[in-house]
Known about the structure:
Order of helices and strands: EHEHEHEHHHEHEHEEEEHEH
Strand content: 15-25%
Number of helices: 10
Structural class: alpha/beta
Largest sheet: 6 strands, parallel
Strand order of the largest sheet: 1-11-8-7-5-6
Bound molecules: NADPH dihydro-nicotinamide-adenine-dinucleotide phosphate
Number of strands: 11
Distance between the termini: 51 Å
Amino acid sequence: MTAQLLDGVALGQKLRAGFKLKADELAAQGVRPGLAVILVGEDAASQIYVRNKVNACAQAGIHSERYAYALDVAPQVVFDKIAELNADPKIHGILVQLPLPKHFDADAVLEAIAPTKDVDGFRAENVGALMQGQPCFIPCTPYGAMKFFEDAGINLKGKEAVVVGRSNIVGKPMAMLLMHAGATVTVCHSQTRDLKAHCLRADILVAAIGKAKMISGDMIKPGAVVIDVGINRIQEGPDAGKLCGDVDFESAREVASFITPVPGGVGPMTITMLLANTLESAERAASA
Length: 288
Ligand code: NDP
C-alpha cells in the first residue's frame, strides 16, 4: 500500500480562499480582522514562522502587526505591549512566538493575553474550556490536524488513536480533540514502556515528539492514518539542513493509508487555523 498524501498546502489554500471573503465582509461592517505577533530574540526558525504568519495574514485580508524585541529585552516591555494590544480594538488576536528566552516566565506572558484575543488557545481558561468540550479558541496545530480528518472524510468514532507527545501546545490538546471526536485515545511520552506496541494498535497515529524520523514503518499498523507534527532539521548526511518530521516518511508511506508530509503537512495548517481563530475573534467583536 502507498499512502494517500494529506496535503496541508492544498487544504490550507482551500480554506484560506474563504477567509479572504470573510475578512472583507467583516471589514465592510467596520471590523478589519487584526493579528499582532510578538517575537523575542533572533531564533532563525521563529523568525521564519513569524514571517510566514504575517505573509499569510496579508493574503487573507487580515491586518497584522509585528513586534520584534532583542533577546535581552526586559520582560516588562513585553507585558506593557501585551496590555496595550489587549486594549486595542484593531487587534483581535495576539500571538507570542515560543520559545521565549530563559529570563521570561512564558506561562505568565501567555496569561497576560486577554482571553478573548488568545488565538493560540494557550491560556489556562481556554485550555479548561477545550477540556470541557466548549472551546473558545482551539490551539492551531491540533486544530489543523483535525481539519485533515474532516476534509478526507476520516471517521474518528470508535477508532484507536495514539498521540506520541504530551506537550501543552500539541500532544494534550490533540488528545482532547480526538477524544471529543469519539476516538479511544492513548497518550505516549518519554516514559512510555514499549512505544512500538502502542503505535502498532493505532488506527490514528499522531507524532508530536521533536525527534527526527523516530516513528518508522514497522511501528505503524497497516492502513493507519499518520499525522506527523514534528519539524526537525536533518543534522548529517546528504540531506543535512533539510526538514523532516518525527515519522520516517519513506517507510511509513508503504504501510499507512493516509500520511502528512513534512514539510507541507501540519505546518501550513497550523498557520491556516491561526487565521481561522483570528477571524472568529473578529467576528465575535463585530457581533458584540
Ligand atoms: P515538546 O518538546 O514540548 O514535547 C515533546 C513530547 O515528546 C514530550 O511529551 C516528550 O515526552 C515526548 N517524547 C520525547 N522523546 C520521546 C520518546 N523517545 N518517546 C516518546 N515520547 C517522547 O515538543 P512540542 O510538542 O512543542 O513539539 C513536538 C514537535 O512538533 C517538534 O518537532 C516541534 O517542532 C513540532 N511542532 C510543529 C508545529 C507545526 O506547526 N507543524 C507546531 C508545534 C510544534 P515527555 O513529556 O515525557 O518529556
